[in-house]
C-alpha cells in the first residue's frame, strides 16, 4: 500500500472513530437511535458528502421496552409542505405505506406529533397522539366540537 493510501485510510479510520465516540456520547437512557443516525447523516451532508449514505447503529437488546411505543413519523412537514419533486414524493408515498401510515398526515391537535395510531375525539374531526394531549386539547376543542354542541 502506498503512503498516500495509507494516509487516507488513517483519515477514514479516524473519522469512523470520531463518529463512534459521538454515538457513545449521545447514547443515554433517553436517546433515540433514529435521532442519532439522523444527526450523523446531517453532519456528513454538511461536509458535502455526495455518497449514497446509510447509517446503521446496532443496539443489542430484546426490545421489549419499546413494544408499547407506537411508531412515529418525524419531520414529515418537510415533505408535506416542501418541494413537490415527483420522485421524492413517490418514494415518500411508498415509505408511508410500507410503514403502515396513512397517505395524508394525521397529526395531534395539540403537539403536532404523528403516530401510526392516533386517538380521536368522538366527533372524528380531531386527532390526538395520547390521552394526555386529548385532555389538554379539550379546553379549546369543546367550544367547536359538534358532539359537545349537540348536547
Ligand atoms: Zn400530542
Ligand atoms: Zn370533538
Structure, described:
- The protein contains 6 helices and 4 strands.
- It has about 150 residues and is mainly α.
- It has 2 domains: about 5-65, no CATH class; about 70-150, no CATH class.
- It has a two-stranded antiparallel ribbon with strand order 1-2.
- The mean pLDDT is about 80.
- Bound molecules: zinc ion (2 copies).
- This is MYND-type domain-containing protein.
SSE series: HHEHHEEEHH
What's the end-to-end separation, in Å? Answer: 82 Å
Chemical compounds bound to the protein: zinc ion
Shape: elongated
The whole-number mean of residue pLDDT values reads 82
How large a portion of the residues is in β-strands, by DSSP E? 5-15%
Q: How many domains, as an integer?
A: 2
Structural class: mainly alpha
Poorly predicted runs are none
Quaternary state reads single chain
Major sheet = 2 strands, antiparallel
Query: Strand tally, please?
Result: 4
Helical stretch count?
6
Task: Write out the strand line-up for the largest beta sheet, numbering strands in chain order.
Answer: 1-2
Helix content: 40-55%
Radius of gyration computed on alpha carbons: 21 Å
Record keyword descriptors for this entry:
5% strand, 4 strands, two-stranded antiparallel sheet, 2 domains
Short note summarizing the structure:
The chain is mainly alpha-helical. It has six helices and four strands. The strands form two sheets. A two-stranded antiparallel ribbon has the order 1-2.
Amino acid at each position: 500500500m502506498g503512503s498516500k493510501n495509507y494516509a487516507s485510510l488513517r483519515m477514514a479510520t479516524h473519522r469512523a472513530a470520531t463518529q463512534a465516540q459521538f454515538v457513545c456520547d449521545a447514547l443515554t437512557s433517553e436517546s433515540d437511535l433514529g435521532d442519532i443516525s439522523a444527526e450523523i447523516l446531517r453532519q456528513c451532508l454538511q461536509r458535502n458528502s455526495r455518497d449514497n449514505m446509510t447509517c446503521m447503529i446496532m443496539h443489542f437488546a430484546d426490545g421489549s421496552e419499546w413494544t408499547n411505543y407506537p411508531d412515529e413519523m418525524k419531520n414529515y412537514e418537510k415533505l408535506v409542505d416542501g418541494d413537490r419533486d415527483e420522485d421524492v414524493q413517490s418514494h415518500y408515498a411508498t415509505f408511508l405505506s410500507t410503514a403502515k401510515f396513512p397517505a395524508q398526515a394525521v397529526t395531534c391537535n395539540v403537539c403536532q406529533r404523528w403516530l401510526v395510531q392516533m386517538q380521536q375525539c368522538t366527533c372524528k374531526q380531531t386527532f390526538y397522539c395520547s390521552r394526555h394531549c386529548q385532555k389538554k386539547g379539550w379546553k379549546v376543542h369543546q367550544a367547536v366540537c359538534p358532539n359537545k354542541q349537540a348536547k
